[in-house]
């Protein structure tokens, strides 16, 4: 819930916003973000109003910004939405600063880690591209573009030989950075050579990290000049293992990842890049990812998807609470991405798996209308974990840091499927109402932010709870995008 510290008044005419008032609200929001909250052009997840403290998944502070959404690139996309809706240069300048921060944090491997370091001592030990380009850079000989040793892929990357060079696809980290830079590049009419080269390099690296079967993994630690070996990672369909361990194996054999939308986000990012650049290579990469989703659908009696698969296309263990199983959340994510692929391509093969997956998942619904995160292979029993991280069939005592029960979105997915299958277009965004906009503007503080009660972490990682509230990047993004959409639709 928002905690309003100071309200902005609207014009008296029915207290509904004019376009000018919406633009002024957006200007105030971006001014706060750039003048008080930004560090080196980038952002964290939560900040104090004066910008002194900030954190993402860990401590941020003055010399570390967060890439993982809702961090730097996600905020940047909101700035670009505001610029396109208003033409106000403050938003474009803010987006350019975000682009500069991401260029400074791009790794030699091609993408980004969860955060970017700007402290000079810490930066000197990290293989950021901008540093490796400098004459006499001490790390330049260690980190170069080169073929990855056979067989490539997870068998090599999991050794973490170059841990500091790790591109993270997990949690939409690198994909979001790519989408932002694509959009910034297009907004700048492809005239900023630094931005254009950075996004092109990132796209090349992620395509080289794509498996022959079309999937992506959690991370990779080098810029490779070729894809992983098809001999070692054959293009085959998913199947059930003959047996699987009920205790954590610690093997981390899952090279193909749907967990946290890893492959799904990359598919949608490649589709976005193909539209921005009209480049067939990016479209082919996205289609290959879609083909993986088709092959990854498990056969009967459970025609849905697992979180991760090994190179034999068997569901595999990942962390100690992520077993080989059918996944309620990742299956819904896969269905959503298949609908996106059909909408973008018109190829009916991407619709074919949807009805039987929905029908099966409906049989999995719990009495509360939700889905378990995991269903046991073949038996289809919902499985959970107890506080000792042992598999359990009882949901009454589970760790609270992980979603072992998830919401069902099956009705909405089926509705969208029926719309697309009938040849009708999907309505991407519902209209923003005058009242929604009025409520957002009224709840904006005098500082320009939407302040919420909560904590922010100081330099030592301790929780600080400012009386005036904190600035949440997720809330700023949502409100900036809502106001921008309102202007675009009018």
In short:
The protein is an alpha+beta fold and 490 residues long. The chain has 15 helices and 18 strands.
Please, could you describe this protein's structure?
- It comes from Rhodopirellula maiorica SM1.
- With 490 residues, the protein is of the alpha+beta class.
- It has a domain at 17-127 and 433-489.
- 39% of the residues lie in helices and 9% in strands.
- Strands 2-1-18-15 form a four-stranded antiparallel beta sheet. It has a four-stranded antiparallel beta sheet with strand order 9-11-12-13.
- Helix 2 (72-86) runs antiparallel to helix 3 (89-105), helix 2 packs parallel to helix 7 (173-187) and helix 12 (354-362) runs antiparallel to helix 13 (410-421).
Rounded to an integer, what's the Rg over CA atoms? 23 Å
Structural class: alpha+beta
Beta-sheet strand percentage? 5-15%
Supply the number of helical segments.
15
Main beta-sheet annotation: 4 strands, antiparallel
Q: Low-confidence spans: pLDDT under 50, at least 5 residues?
A: 1-6
Distance between the termini: 28 Å
Secondary structure: helix percent: 25-40%
Q: Give a count of the beta strands, DSSP E runs of length 2 or more.
A: 18
Instruction: Give the neighbour order of strands across the main sheet.
Output: 2-1-18-15
Average pLDDT, rounded to a whole number, is 95
Tell me the overall shape.
Answer: globular
